[in-house]
Design goal:
- The protein has about 290 residues and is an all-alpha fold.
- It folds into 2 domains: about 80 residues, no CATH class; about 200 residues, no CATH class.
- The chain is built from 11 helices and no strands.
- Helix 2 packs parallel to helix 7, helix 4 packs antiparallel against helix 11 and helix 7 packs across helix 8.
- The longest helix has about 35 residues.
- It is globular and about 55 Å long.
- The two termini are about 30 Å apart.
- The relative contact order is 0.13.
C-alpha cells in the first residue's frame, strides 16, 4: 500500500508540476514557447533563470512532494518517518572520506559504461539510448553554462542541494524503505531502489556509476539510520561536479564533450576500489 500511494503521489506531483510549468511558460514566454524550446535559451546557449525555476518545480513535484505526502499519509512527520537523527561529527567526516576515495572508482565505472555495445538485434534500442544521451548532454550543457557567481549559486542549489534532499527523500526514504517491508532483505531493497534511481534519469550510458552511487547512499542510510548522511553524500557528489565545471569555464578549459579517457592508471582504480570497501566497512562499524 505504501508503494502504491507513493506512485499515486508521484503521478499527482508531476502532473501538478507540469501544469505549473505550462502556466509559467505561458505567462513569461507566451503560447509560442510551448512549441519552440529555444525560448528557454539565451544567446550563449544558457538556460534562462525562468527555465531553471521550472526545473526546480519539476524536481519538487516529482520527488520531494510525494515523499512528504507519504509520511503525512502514514500519520507521521517527515522527520520521524524518515529518521532525521542529529548528525554526529565522526560519521559526517566519514561521509566526506567515502565520497573522496570512491571518485576514481566512479570514473572507472563510467568509462566501462560508455563502452557498452549491444548485439545486432538490439541496435534499435542502442540507437534510442544514444539519442537520449545526446538530448541529456545538450540539456546538461545548457544547465551548467555559468557566466556569473549567481549562476554558480543557483546551480549549486538546483543541481546539488535540491536533488540531494528531494531524491534521497524519494528513493532512499520512500522507495528503499518500502522495498524493505516488501522483500524483508536490505540488499534487495537497496540495489533495486538504486537501479530505479539510475534508470529514471534516462541516461543509460551513465547508468552504472549512478546505480553504484545510489547503492552507496542506500547503505549509508541503512547503517546510519539517518537520512542526513545520504543527503550529504548526494550533495557532495553533485556539488563537486558543478564546482569542477565552474572552474573549467573560468579557466577556458573544454568541458562540454563526453570524456571517456582514463585520468588514473589501472592501479589507481584498484586502490580506489579497495579504499572504498574499507571505508564502507569502517563507516558501518562506526555507525553501529
Amino acid at each position: 500500500m505504501q508503494l502504491f500511494m507513493l506512485i499515486v503521489f508521484a503521478v499527482g506531483g508531476i502532473v501538478a508540476a507540469i501544469l505549473l510549468t505550462v502556466l509559467v511558460c505561458l505567462v513569461v514566454y507566451g503560447s509560442h514557447a510551448i512549441s519552440n524550446l529555444t525560448h528557454f535559451l539565451d544567446s550563449a546557449g544558457m538556460l534562462k533563470t525562468e527555465a531553471k525555476i521550472l526545473q526546480i518545480f519539476t524536481s519538487l513535484g516529482f520527488f520531494m512532494v510525494p515523499a512528504v505526502f507519504l509520511a503525512l499519509y502514514e500519520g507521521k512527520s517527515p522527520g520521524n518517518f524518515y529518521n532525521f537523527k542529529r548528525p554526529k561529527l565522526i560519521i559526517t567526516v566519514l561521509v566526506f572520506l567515502l565520497m573522496a576515495v570512491s571518485m576514481p572508482l566512479m570514473e572507472w565505472s563510467a568509462i566501462l559504461n560508455q563502452k557498452m555495445v549491444f548485439p545486432e538485434f538490439l541496435k534499435p534500442v542502442e540507437a534510442w539510448m544514444k539519442q537520449k544521451e545526446k538530448e541529456a548532454l545538450g540539456m546538461t550543457i545548457a544547465l551548467l553554462t555559468m557566466r556569473h557567481i549567481w549562476d554558480l549559486i543557483l546551480n549549486l542549489f538546483m543541481i546539488a542541494l535540491l536533488p540531494a534532499v528531494a531524491e534521497e527523500l524519494m528513493f532512499r526514504g520512500g522507495v528503499q524503505r518500502t522495498f524493505m517491508r516488501i522483500f524483508g532483505n536490505p540488499h534487495v531493497a537497496i540495489w533495486l531502489s538504486a537501479a530505479i534511481f539510475s534508470a529514471i534519469h534516462l541516461q543509460f550510458y551513465g547508468f552504472l556509476p549512478r546505480m553504484l552511487l545510489g547503492a552507496g547512499f542506500g547503505y549509508i542510510y541503512l547503517w546510519s539510520h539517518s537520512l542526513w548522511y545520504a543527503m550529504l553524500a548526494h550533495f557532495l557528489n553533485n556539488a563537486y561536479s558543478v564546482l569542477v565545471v565552474w572552474y573549467m569555464q573560468r579557466h577556458s578549459l573544454p568541458w562540454t564533450e563526453a570524456d571517456s579517457v582514463p585520468h588514473f592508471p589501472w592501479y589507481g582504480y584498484v586502490i580506489s576500489s579497495l579504499l572504498t570497501i574499507f571505508a564502507f566497512l569502517y563507516f558501518k562499524k562506526q555507525a553501529k
